[in-house]
């Protein structure tokens, strides 16, 4: 049994595409098909359903997959024990990331990442739509929301800290709230889905159902409306830190931290085997963003 046939099969189980799986391993589509055919002939079983649009695993393929992963894992461990592990990150890394975070904190870091890993090339989709990583053939996604699919694995890259902000103009005209309860008398800029803000106080947690005449579905728009004096806003520090440094925004209610455990996550399809290029991505950006993240220092 050829170990490279097994690597291709495991990758195919993630991508559901023989050409994409082959490309990730440096194989042409015809050669990738030959590898899969050879593995099926060796096992005497059909592992893959083939259609004109995509492929999927047969029942035999699903049964065989964890054994293939285990074999590769043991082979790689054995090779690494004698200094011959196949650890060089290479190939195309297909990434999905939120548009604002991607522009502000992914794209500026890419030059250093690619310099450190010259055998990797990147294919990036920046979108605020929640894409299906497996169906889209993505290797890794960046998310700032809780993982809800058991078919995916999440690795934390950084804490996504939220604070309450207002502009100097708004404070001059409307005063500055000194407690969460006083927010009920202020215009609040709402991000769709996060209209309730919960604060930690000496008397326990306080939930404020915010009200205001501005409600949008994009974090940068919330920040910009706040800068323009349209109300009080909850902002992620990664989206507001430069404006806080310049004084365009002022953090308020600092003695009442928000109850929030949001983080920036790297998400990838579940497998016992973490491809070197994905491991390289996670390792690099975990260090690049830092603990605490550079936007919180």
Q: How would you characterize this protein structure?
A:
The protein is an alpha/beta fold and 297 residues long. Helices cover 38% and strands 24% of the residues. The protein is built from 10 helices and 14 strands. It has helices spanning 3-15, 18-24, 29-43, 59-81, 99-106, 110-116, 168-174, 219-227, 237-246, 276-289; strands spanning 48-50, 55-57, 91-97, 120-126, 140-143, 152-159, 162-166, 188-191, 196-201, 204-209, 214-216, 232-236, 250-252, 263-269. The strands form 4 sheets. It has a 5-stranded mixed sheet. Strands 11-8-12-7-13 form a 5-stranded mixed sheet. The chain has a two-stranded antiparallel sheet with strand order 1-2. A hairpin with a 4-residue loop joins strand 1 (48-50) and strand 2. Helix 1 crosses helix 2 (18-24) and helix 2 crosses helix 3 (29-43). It is elongated and about 75 Å long. The termini are far apart. The mean pLDDT is 88.
At a glance:
This protein has 297 residues and is an alpha/beta fold.
Tell me the fraction of residues in β-strands, as a range. Answer: 15-25%
* Content-based structural category: alpha/beta
Q: What's the alpha carbon Rg, rounded to whole Å?
A: 24 Å
The global form is elongated
Keywords:
297 residues, alpha/beta, five-stranded mixed sheet, elongated, 10 helices
Secondary structure blueprint with pairings:
Elements: H1 3-15, H2 18-24, H3 29-43, E1 48-50, E2 55-57, H4 59-81, E3 91-97, H5 99-106, H6 110-116, E4 120-126, E5 140-143, E6 152-159, E7 162-166, H7 168-174, E8 188-191, E9 196-201, E10 204-209, E11 214-216, H8 219-227, E12 232-236, H9 237-246, E13 250-252, E14 263-269, H10 276-289
Parallel strand pairs: 3-4, 3-5, 8-11, 8-12
Antiparallel strand pairs: 1-2, 5-14, 6-14, 7-12, 7-13, 9-10
